[in-house]
TrEMBL record:
<protein>
    <submittedName>
        <fullName>N-acetylglucosamine-6-phosphate deacetylase</fullName>
        <ecNumber>3.5.1.25</ecNumber>
    </submittedName>
</protein>
<dbReference type="InterPro" id="IPR011059">
    <property type="entry name" value="Metal-dep_hydrolase_composite"/>
</dbReference>
<keyword id="KW-0119">Carbohydrate metabolism</keyword>
<comment type="similarity">
    <text>Belongs to the metallo-dependent hydrolases superfamily. NagA family.</text>
</comment>
<dbReference type="InterPro" id="IPR032466">
    <property type="entry name" value="Metal_Hydrolase"/>
</dbReference>
<dbReference type="Pfam" id="PF01979">
    <property type="entry name" value="Amidohydro_1"/>
</dbReference>
<dbReference type="InterPro" id="IPR006680">
    <property type="entry name" value="Amidohydro-rel"/>
</dbReference>
<keyword id="KW-0378">Hydrolase</keyword>
<dbReference type="GO" id="GO:0008448">
    <property type="term" value="F:N-acetylglucosamine-6-phosphate deacetylase activity"/>
</dbReference>
<feature type="domain" description="Amidohydrolase-related">
    <location>
        <begin position="56"/>
        <end position="380"/>
    </location>
</feature>
<dbReference type="InterPro" id="IPR003764">
    <property type="entry name" value="GlcNAc_6-P_deAcase"/>
</dbReference>
<keyword id="KW-0479">Metal-binding</keyword>
Length: 386
C-alpha cells in the first residue's frame, strides 16, 4: 500500500461538516492516492515530508486555460499537450479545463475529437477535467479578442455537434442570443456547466439564464455589461445572485484591485479565480497565438491583440492567490476560490479540498504563495525546492 505522511507549519482543510479553515500545525496522511486522515498538531511517528514554512493547500483547479508555455490548447500537437500537462504543476495547478475559444462549430468539433484521441497518452501531471468552450455563442458587442466572423446562435444542431465527444464540461455563452436559454437547458441536462460571458445582456436576462441552469459568469467585468445604476447588466447580477459564481482574472490588470475587492466582498464564497492564460503564459515577451490569431506578450501586463484588446493573460493561478491576499482577502478564502469552489462548480467534490476521501492533489505554497511542491494523486509531480 502506497502511503505518504506530510506535516505542515499550516494547512488549509475543507471538512464536510464545517467551513474551510487553517490548521497550524497540521498533517495529512495519504493512502493509495487518497487522503485518509487530516489532523491538527503533530502526528505519531516521523513524517515522510515536513513543510516548515508556507502552507499546504489543496491542488489548484483552473477552469479557464487557453494555453501555456507557448502552446494554444485548441490546436496544440501531442508534444504541446504533454508540455502543458507536465508543467502546469509548476504553478500549483493539479486540475484544469483546456479552453477553446471561438471558431466555426465544425472546427471546434474537430478540435474536440483530436483532444479526445490525445488524452489517453498524456504523461503524469495536471488532470484534464474536460474542455471549456468559450464561444462561439457570444455577443458581437462584447466579443473581446474573439473573431466576430465566427460568432453564431446556439442552435440545437450546433449544441449537439459540440456535445458529441462527451469532453465538454463548461460552455461560455451570451444568453441574449437567439435560442440561448433553450441551449442552457440542454447543456445543463447533459451535465455541462454553463457560464454567462461575452454578453451585453441585462441583469434580468442573466437571471433568466440562471433560472434555466447557468451557474457561472466568465471573467466578471471583462467583455460584459456592468453595474450601471439604472441599467444593471451581467456583472451586477453576478454579484448579487447566489446561484452564480463569478470568475475573476486577478492579475490586477483585467480588474482593478479595488473592484476585485468588491467582487470578494459581494460574492464571498462564490468567487472562482481563473487565469484565462494564453499561450504566452510562462513565456518571454514576444508574439504568440490565441485561437489561431496573433497576440503580443509585452514586457509588463497581459497579452494583446493588434488593436490593443486584452487577449487572455500571462497569469499563474498561484500568483492570483497571492494577489487576492495582497488586496485583503483572507488566505483560506483566497485558496478556496482557486480550489474548492471551482471543483464543486464543475461537479468534482473529490478535488479541491484537503479532507478524508478526497484525491491527494496537494500543493505546498511558499510564504510568497508560489508553488514549491505539487502532488497529484499522492505522487510528486513538481519539486521546486525550499
Amino acid at each position: 500500500m502506497a502511503s505518504l505522511l506530510i506535516t505542515a507549519n499550516s494547512l488549509i482543510t475543507s471538512p464536510a461538516d464545517g467551513p474551510t479553515r487553517v490548521l497550524s500545525p497540521g498533517y495529512v496522511r495519504v493512502e493509495d492516492g487518497v487522503i485518509a486522515e487530516v489532523g491538527e498538531g503533530r502526528p505519531a511517528g516521523p513524517p515522510d515530508v515536513d513543510l516548515p514554512t508556507g502552507v499546504l493547500a489543496p491542488g489548484l483547479v483552473d477552469l479557464q486555460v487557453n494555453g501555456f508555455f507557448g502552446y494554444d490548447m485548441v490546436d496544440a500537437d501531442e508534444a504541446g499537450w504533454h508540455t502543458v500537462v507536465s508543467r502546469l504543476p509548476e504553478t500549483g495547478v493539479t486540475s484544469f479545463l483546456p479552453t477553446f475559444i471561438t471558431a466555426p462549430v465544425r472546427t471546434q468539433a474537430e478540435a474536440l475529437r483530436r483532444a479526445r484521441d490525445l488524452l489517453p497518452g498524456l504523461p503524469a501531471g495536471t488532470r484534464v477535467l474536460g474542455v471549456h468552450l468559450e464561444g462561439p455563442f457570444l455577443s458581437e458587442k462584447r466579443k473581446g479578442a474573439h473573431n466576430a466572423a465566427h460568432l453564431t446562435d446556439p442552435t440545437p444542431e450546433a449544441v449537439a455537434a459540440l456535445l458529441e465527444t462527451g469532453l465538454v464540461k463548461l460552455v461560455t455563452l451570451a444568453p441574449e442570443r437567439n435560442g440561448a436559454l433553450d441551449a442552457v437547458r440542454t447543456l445543463t441536462e447533459a451535465g455541462v456547466l454553463v457560464s454567462v460571458g461575452h454578453s451585453d445582456a441585462s441583469a434580468e436576462r442573466v437571471a433568466a439564464a440562471a433560472d434555466a441552469g447557468a451557474r457561472m459568469v466568465t471573467h466578471i467585468f471583462n467583455a460584459q455589461s456592468g453595474v450601471h445604476h439604472r441599467e444593471p447588466g451581467v456583472a451586477a447580477q453576478a454579484l448579487v445572485d447566489p446561484r452564480l459564481s463569478p470568475g475573476l482574472i486577478l492579475d490586477l490588470h483585467h480588474v482593478a484591485p479595488l473592484v476585485a475587492e468588491l467582487v470578494f466582498r459581494a460574492a464571498g464564497g462564490r468567487v472562482v479565480l481563473v487565469t484565462d492564460a494564453a499561450s504566452s503564459a510562462g513565456m518571454p515577451p514576444g508574439t504568440y497565438e490565441l485561437g489561431g490569431e496573433p497576440i503580443t506578450m509585452p514586457e509588463q501586463g497581459p497579452p494583446l491583440r493588434a488593436d490593443g484588446t486584452l487577449a487572455g493573460s500571462g497569469l499563474r493561478l498561484d500568483e492570483a492567490i497571492g494577489n487576492a491576499v495582497r488586496i485583503g482577502v483572507g488566505l483560506a478564502d483566497a485558496v478556496d476560490a482557486a480550489t474548492r469552489v471551482p471543483a464543486d462548480l464543475i461537479g468534482r467534490p473529490d478535488l479541491g479540498r484537503i479532507a478524508p476521501g478526497a484525491a491527494a492533489d496537494l500543493v505546498w505554497l511558499g510564504p510568497d504563495h508560489r508553488a514549491r511542491t505539487t502532488w497529484v494523486g499522492g505522487q510528486n509531480v513538481f519539486e521546486g525546492g525550499s
